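Tokens for chain A. Residues wanted.
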């Protein structure tokens, strides 16, 4: 909607190139020139008719990822400001890039309601809980809110991740998690049961993000529930994502204090990473936590619990699901599937 006012009065495809040219000159809508006039016109017509295709999480994260991995950090968006910093020492072979997100905006829109189970409970694919619409007729607008904040973006080395995924031990661990995913969906009569499993890459990134959130909350004094995550782990022909954002965006002052950006600087992030990985090796609930088999109780996590990996559900994009410490660091039960074997 930020750019709709520039295109709402256009009457034909021929007017789109001129509008794009004017926007580039004024710098009003950064990045609009990356799209063809035909694609923009198709979007205009879909917006006017209300017949646009349903947008998935992957559709939203794709453009975000392209901005985050741009070789030249974006610094002229009105709601987004980033700065590239050095990768922490000792993690050069694992981490490819770190960005300090000094300014970002999060927009949430209310589309409908579910009972008992949230939409993400379906595991991301296939049938999910029935969503009740906001009104009997299709609404012309929905309630939404926006908050501003700051964060840290970490991009991991694609080659290191790909080699780790090919490990026999990682594939065996992933198979157990996949079995728990199938059992969970079967118990809720969601078909097909294989749909929606995010993969080992997602589980590792998701678990590490949780470990860092817990460490950041201890270090910087932020309210832990105000720190959130956004995981990028889609793999397709056009792009392979491998990273996450840890950010704080709250209506109060927690979102703009600057403490999270300060902790993203190389010397601070290195210390936090080392501390988070060391804490994750042993859980106060071990060996029960480390030995947890998701296939036996049809759960969506393995070596993870409230004592070591869980965060507030408002902080987690998956409701504390798809977590396994063994994918990140060696544990009592599984010492060979870790992405950081020497932590």
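Reply:
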């Amino acid at each position: 909607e930020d750019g709709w006012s520039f295109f709402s009065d256009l009457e034909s495809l021929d007017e789109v190139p001129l509008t794009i040219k004017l926007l580039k000159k004024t710098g009003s809508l950064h990045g609009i020139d990356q799209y063809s006039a035909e694609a923009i016109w198709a979007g205009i017509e879909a917006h006017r008719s209300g017949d646009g295709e349903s947008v998935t999480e992957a559709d939203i994260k794709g453009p975000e990822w392209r901005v985050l991995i741009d070789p030249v950090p974006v610094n002229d968006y009105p709601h987004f400001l980033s700065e590239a910093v050095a990768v922490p020492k000792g993690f050069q072979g694992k981490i490819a890039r770190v960005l300090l997100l000094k300014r970002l905006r999060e927009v949430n829109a209310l589309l409908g309601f579910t009972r008992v189970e949230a939409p993400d409970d379906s595991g991301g694919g296939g049938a999910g809980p029935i969503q009740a619409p906001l009104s009997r007729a299709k609404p012309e607008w929905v309630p939404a809110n926006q908050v501003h904040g700051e964060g840290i973006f970490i991009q991991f080395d694609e080659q290191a991740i790909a080699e780790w995924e090919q490990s026999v031990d990682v594939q065996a661990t992933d198979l157990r998690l996949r079995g728990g995913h199938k059992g969970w969906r079967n118990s809720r009569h969601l078909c097909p049961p294989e749909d929606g499993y995010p993969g080992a890459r997602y589980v590792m990134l998701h678990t590490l993000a949780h470990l860092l959130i817990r460490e950041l909350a201890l270090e910087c004094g932020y309210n832990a529930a105000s720190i959130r995550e956004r995981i990028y782990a889609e793999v397709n022909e056009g792009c392979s994502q491998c990273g996450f954002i840890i950010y704080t965006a709250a209506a109060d002052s927690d979102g703009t204090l600057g403490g999270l950006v300060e902790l993203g600087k190389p010397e601070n992030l290195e210390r936090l990473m080392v501390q988070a990985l060391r804490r994750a090796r042993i859980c106060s609930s071990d060996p029960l936590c480390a030995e947890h088999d998701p296939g036996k109780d049809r759960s969506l996590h393995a070596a993870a619990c409230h004592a070591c990996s869980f965060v507030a559900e408002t902080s987690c994009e998956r409701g504390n699901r798809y977590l396994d410490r063994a994918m990140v660091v060696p544990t009592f039960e599984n010492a060979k599937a870790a992405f950081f074997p020497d932590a």
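The two ends are 45 Å apart (CA to CA). The beta strands are 81-85, 95-109, 112-113, 132-133, 144-156, 227-232, 243-249.
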